């Protein structure tokens, strides 16, 4: 009886040890997998975007859930705090058109507070990334992603607000003492604004922090009568990141 009892205790210990070893092995495997994922992630971060990688949670708070960006996306996406603030002004708006959607930073935030978003992007690879990121935030059903050139599509688009965050020309924009609207890509700011005006007078432009604010403000005079305007400085962690200019109906810009 004593021998049988001792054998039973040894067997129980063996089972517990096996379970413990299995748990430890699973933990090691998860840590190994996470480490490999991080190394792979870092290997895809080029020297050009390393500084932005350290700001990844400012760009997307859900970055670790599986957010994906291409190289241009790292330095062109609107920081989430700023995108959320811009979207909040139009909470409850019908249709918002994001003319240069990129990897989806602004479209996602607009989709959280507005009824619907039409996100236009000329690069199909970016559209795939933006669509993936929208799923992570649970707003994919509120966004129609359209692959195309905004200037060609503008005459056929209908919306209540147009959001314009055109390419600034990469990180080199910072070297300009005074960033003028003709430096915007793919066309100058005047052409861009006029294309948006064909859709709605309610226009938002997200521009570099060193933009010529007076020149940007003068875009309001392209409309008759001139559009109402508000200029806003956008900061993250106390640092100026960009300038947002709001044109149009003051009821939407509360």
UniProtKB/TrEMBL annotation:
Transferase listed as a keyword: yes
Cellular compartments annotated: Cytoplasm; Nucleus, Cajal body; Nucleus, Nucleolus
Record InterPro entries: RNA_cap_Gua-N2-MeTrfase (IPR019012), SAM-dependent_MTases_sf (IPR029063)
Entry keyword Disulfide bond: no
GO molecular function, one term: methyltransferase activity
Reactions listed under catalytic activity: a 5'-end (N(7)-methyl 5'-triphosphoguanosine)-ribonucleoside in snoRNA + S-adenosyl-L-methionine = a 5'-end (N(2),N(7)-dimethyl 5'-triphosphoguanosine)-ribonucleoside in snoRNA + S-adenosyl-L-homocysteine + H(+); a 5'-end (N(2),N(7)-dimethyl 5'-triphosphoguanosine)-ribonucleoside in snoRNA + S-adenosyl-L-methionine = a 5'-end (N(2),N(2),N(7)-trimethyl 5'-triphosphoguanosine)-ribonucleoside in snoRNA + S-adenosyl-L-homocysteine + H(+); a 5'-end (N(7)-methyl 5'-triphosphoguanosine)-ribonucleoside in snRNA + S-adenosyl-L-methionine = a 5'-end (N(2),N(7)-dimethyl 5'-triphosphoguanosine)-ribonucleoside in snRNA + S-adenosyl-L-homocysteine + H(+); a 5'-end (N(2),N(7)-dimethyl 5'-triphosphoguanosine)-ribonucleoside in snRNA + S-adenosyl-L-methionine = a 5'-end (N(2),N(2),N(7)-trimethyl 5'-triphosphoguanosine)-ribonucleoside in snRNA + S-adenosyl-L-homocysteine + H(+)
Domain of life, source organism: Eukaryota
Matching SUPFAM superfamilies: S-adenosyl-L-methionine-dependent methyltransferases
The entry's keywords: Cytoplasm, Methyltransferase, Nucleus, Phosphoprotein, S-adenosyl-L-methionine, Transcription, Transcription regulation, Transferase
CC annotations in GO: Cajal body; cytoplasm; nucleolus
Entry-linked Pfam families: Methyltransf_15
GO BP terms in the entry: methylation
Function: Catalyzes the 2 serial methylation steps for the conversion of the 7-monomethylguanosine (m(7)G) caps of snRNAs and snoRNAs to a 2,2,7-trimethylguanosine (m(2,2,7)G) cap structure. The enzyme is specific for guanine, and N7 methylation must precede N2 methylation. Hypermethylation of the m7G cap of U snRNAs leads to their concentration in nuclear foci, their colocalization with coilin and the formation of canonical Cajal bodies (CBs). Plays a role in transcriptional regulation.
UniProt family annotation: Belongs to the methyltransferase superfamily. Trimethylguanosine synthase family.
Subunit structure: May form homooligomers. Interacts with CREBBP/CBP, EED/WAIT1, EP300/P300, NCOA6/PRIP, PPARBP/PBP and SMN.
Protein name from the UniProt record: Trimethylguanosine synthase
């Amino acid at each position: 009886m004593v021998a049988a009892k001792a054998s039973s205790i040894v067997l129980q210990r063996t089972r517990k040890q096996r379970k413990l070893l299995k748990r430890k092995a699973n933990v090691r495997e998860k840590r190994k997998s996470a480490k490999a994922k991080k190394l792979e992630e870092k290997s895809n971060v080029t020297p050009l975007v390393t500084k932005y990688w350290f700001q990844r949670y400012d760009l997307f708070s859900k970055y670790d859930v599986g957010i994906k960006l291409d190289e241009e996306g790292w330095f062109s996406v609107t920081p989430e705090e700023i995108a959320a603030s811009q979207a909040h002004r139009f909470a409850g708006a019908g249709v918002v058109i994001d003319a240069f959607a990129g990897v989806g930073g602004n479209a996602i935030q607009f989709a959280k507070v507005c009824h619907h978003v039409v996100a236009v992007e000329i690069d199909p690879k970016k559209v795939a990334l933006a669509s993936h990121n929208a799923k992570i935030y649970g707003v994919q059903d509120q966004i129609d992603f359209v692959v195309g050139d905004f200037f060609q599509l503008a005459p056929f688009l209908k919306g209540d607000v147009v959001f314009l965050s055109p390419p600034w020309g990469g990180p080199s924009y910072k070297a300009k003492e005074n960033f003028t609207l003709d430096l915007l890509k793919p066309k100058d700011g005047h052409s861009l604004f006029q294309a948006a005006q064909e859709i709605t007078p309610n226009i938002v432009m997200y521009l570099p922090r060193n933009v010529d604010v007076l020149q940007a403000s003068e875009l309001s005079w392209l409309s008759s009568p001139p559009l109402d305007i508000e200029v806003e400085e956008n900061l993250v962690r106390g640092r100026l990141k960009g300038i947002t200019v709001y044109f149009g109906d003051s009821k939407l810009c509360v």
